[in-house]
């Protein structure tokens, strides 16, 4: 999968929030690009404009390679490459693609790392 991935920055900025407030959940659910129920509340991935000032603005990088839910190694390779450059990431696997959320101020650096990772893998293939 790595040799074929084509990382692409998506428009906008996002933030991760968590809430148990039913009213806030109802208000933000139509805006959320992802949710996950945890014991502490509903984690929501929403446009940054809907989060408070303490949330870290994140950019979404879509890997643009079909990533089977049974695939092995993509998440590990991407998160390890970013980690080696001190870039935090939150991976979100969906049905068709994996998405990497990185702090907005590190997005350009993350794109350079992911592009280099893809090129190295393609050269070995």
UniProtKB/TrEMBL annotation:
Alphabetical list of InterPro entries matching this protein: ACT-like_dom_sf, CASTOR_ACT_dom
Domain CASTOR ACT, first and last residues per copy: 57-115
Highest taxon listed in the record's lineage: Bacteria
Gene3D superfamilies (UniProt xref): VC0802-like (3.30.2130.10)
Pfam families in UniProt: ACT_7 (PF13840)
Residue ranges that the Swiss-Prot or TrEMBL entry lists as coiled coil: none
Name of this protein: CASTOR ACT domain-containing protein
Organism encoding this protein: Yoonia maricola
